[in-house]
Amino acid sequence: MTRFCIFKRFLWLGLVLSAPLWAQEYPARPITMVMPYAPGGPGDVITRIYAAAMQKALGQQIVVDNTAGASGTIGTAKVARSKPDGYTLLMIHVSHATNLAMFKNLSYNPVDDFEPIGLATEGPMVVVARRDFPAKDAKEFVAYVRDNAAKLSMGHAGVGSASHLCSLMFMNALNVQLTSVPYKGAAPALNDVMGGQLDVMCDQTTSTTPATTSGRVKAYLVAGKTRLASLPELPALPELGTSGFDISIMFGLYAPKGTPKAVIDKLTTALQAAIKDPDVKSRLGSLGALPVTAEKARPEFLRAHLKHEIETLNPLLIKAGVQPD
């Protein structure tokens, strides 16, 4: 046997033996978790909760990087361009799907340029109205909206936002058209509902629960198929004989395309540990959010969830006449 052949055999053997060792050593340095929105919002808080929990399981620090701007596309593109080694991750919600309809020339593909790790958290959404709204319960609310749609306004946090999608789905389910009023964020929209300048809004419980419990707005409906354990008095629209109103804000964790399966497996295991962490449950509960089930905190579920959001939510934006930038 020639020296060259012997060298090739040793080289091959070294690569075979080193691959499992490399996977076992991950992570060997701090990980960056990109949150593509500004600090201080619900998404930022959720990301930091999961970063703290997952670093316990991984044995390495996870640093949160708020690379905000352009509806989350700047931070998302940063992750798509990152080395696929498990050291740069993305935590993002529904905008990962809807930005396909919001922008003409995305520099990345939400499906093809990322490896899903799993869903992390679920934020239920509810429909609220000004506190002097004439309906006393959900049944009267739906009837009143149908009879007076042309006179009513429905605010949201901006075109393409979760609350905008929720409002479109709500109007589509009831087959009505309220006057849509965009705001720069959910907070100013909710302020106008509390002040009586705006009639109706749909938003996450993380925003609406404090205003509801204090009596500054009325809550009428859950945007889902069933009632929420945290708001058992609120019916879901199917209870009133109407379907098609099912949306919640779910944050998912991604890595760049090409990240080795062994690394994805380790990250999924750490995510699974995080959703069971009592501190995570407590801190999310204080925000009105929930950790997902173990079934949903897996790559295959997040992959299917993203596909479903693209197929169901983007047509709503197109139907509403949203023009991509």
Please tell me the overall pLDDT: 91
Largest sheet: 10 strands, mixed
Q: What is the chain-wise order of helices and strands?
A: HEHEHEHEHEHEHEHEEHHEH
Q: What radius of gyration results from the CA coordinates?
A: 22 Å
The strand count comes to 10
What is the count of DSSP helices, taking H or I runs of 4+ residues?
11
Description of the molecule:
There is one protein chain. The chain has helices at 3-25, 42-58, 73-80, 95-102, 138-148, 162-174, 186-195, 205-213, 261-276, 278-287, 299-319, and strands at residues 31-35, 62-66, 88-92, 114-130, 153-156, 179-182, 200-204, 217-222, 248-256, 290-291. The relative contact order is 0.18. It has 325 residues and is α/β, with parallel strands linked by helices. Strands 1, 2, 3, 4, 5, 6, 7, 8, 9 and 10 form a ten-stranded mixed beta sheet that branches. It is 45% helix and 19% strand.
Detail the topology: elements first, then pairings:
Layout: H1 3-25, E1 31-35, H2 42-58, E2 62-66, H3 73-80, E3 88-92, H4 95-102, E4 114-130, H5 138-148, E5 153-156, H6 162-174, E6 179-182, H7 186-195, E7 200-204, H8 205-213, E8 217-222, E9 248-256, H9 261-276, H10 278-287, E10 290-291, H11 299-319
Parallel strand pairs: 1-2, 1-3, 5-6, 5-7
Antiparallel strand pairs: 3-9, 4-7, 4-8, 4-9, 4-10
Helix pairs in contact: 2-9, 2-10, 4-11
Task: Looking at this protein, list some descriptive labels.
325 residues, alpha/beta, ten-stranded mixed beta sheet, 11 helices, globular
